[in-house]
Amino acid sequence: MASGIDWFRWHHGSVLDPKFQLVAKRASARLGDVIAVWAFLLESASANDERGTVGTLDFESIDLLLGAQDGTSSRIVEAMRQRGLVDDAGRICACNAGLARVP
């Protein structure tokens, strides 16, 4: 827990955001796995002493947790980097950029 803060913000419409569908397509992954990895990254970045930075990821453990094939979470995070959601230093860049509007 970073500085006594044990929560992070989640935006309405995040699950329906088309950028996650694009990430799923580029990573050859299920949309649910992309959403789960995004939630994992946000939680990790929130809990890190350097808030907003994900830190070192254990992709093998994330894949096991998701019940996904080996390499899935690594491909997802790479697609998120390419899309500008996470930078090369592992910082969350776009928590709500391009959110779809839910009617």
Characterization of this structure:
The protein is mostly helical. The chain has a domain at 14-83. Helices cover 46% and strands 0% of the residues. The protein has 4 helices and no strands. The chain has helices at 18-27, 31-47, 59-66, 72-83. The longest helix is centred in the middle third of the chain and has 17 residues, at 31-47. It starts with 17 loop residues before the first helix and ends in a 20-residue tail after the last helix. Residues 97-103 have low confidence and may be disordered.
What fraction of residues sit in β-strands?
under 5%
- Regions with pLDDT < 50 over 5+ consecutive residues? 97-103
First and last CA, distance: 35 Å
Task: Please outline the major beta sheet.
Answer: none
Please give the radius of gyration in angstroms. Answer: 13 Å
Q: State the total count of DSSP E strands.
A: 0
Question: How would the global form be characterised?
Answer: globular
Structural class: mainly alpha
Q: Tell me roughly what share of residues is in helical segments.
A: 40-55%
Number of helices: 4
- Sketch the topology as an H/E string, one letter per element: HHHH
- Nearest-integer average pLDDT: 85
